[in-house]
Design a protein that fits this description.
Length: about 180
């Protein structure tokens, strides 16, 4: 009698359900009409970009090994959570907000690279979730550093330096578009 090994299939999705989003695309630049959220008038911000990484994966495993898996990582912009105050924005602010979305895509590429280079075990769910958690921490810190160094778009020269840097990093990781 031959032994039959059962294969299990998981599907994990870390995506908001049914929420409107714009998928990052190098040929689509954000416009003010993409920002549909209600602005916070009494705050310090002229605009807010809500973006994030989503990922899902499926895996086939036996009790002792990973047989196969696929993963999808995407950078999303969330229009209904993103907003601006018309009287306080200009094209410089829009370019600043676009770069926030580009930074999200940069980290999506970093996560795709990490997944591509990983040697996952039968514990792939835990392992891939850890990669996702770590890249999200890195993304949050990177976004904060970007805002601080550019003084929220007010430092024009630093803003230009960040745009060049992020574009170079995106090109370095173009294999992971």
């Amino acid at each position: 009698m031959s032994k039959f090994i059962y294969l299990f299939l998981f599907f994990i999705s870390f995506q908001p359900s049914e929420e409107e989003y714009i998928l990052w695309n190098e040929n689509h630049r954000l416009e003010w009409n993409d920002f549909k959220g209600a602005p916070i008038i009494n705050g310090d911000a002229a605009a807010i970009t809500a973006s994030g990484l989503t990922f899902s994966f499926s895996a086939r495993t036996t009790s002792t090994r990973l047989v196969d898996f696929t993963a999808i990582v995407e950078a999303h912009f969330y229009p209904n959570q993103s907003w601006y105050i018309k009287e306080h924005v200009n094209n410089i602010v829009l370019a600043h907000e676009q770069l926030h979305f580009d930074i999200t895509e940069l980290h999506a590429r970093k996560l795709r690279k990490q997944i591509d280079e990983a040697n996952f075990s039968v514990n792939i769910k835990k392992e891939i979730s850890k990669l996702h958690t770590n890249i999200n921490k890195e993304l949050k810190e990177f976004q904060k550093k970007y805002d601080t160094e550019t003084n929220y778009s007010r430092s024009i020269e630093t803003q230009k330096e960040w745009q060049i840097f992020v574009n170079q990093e995106l090109k370095k990781l173009s294999k992971y578009k």
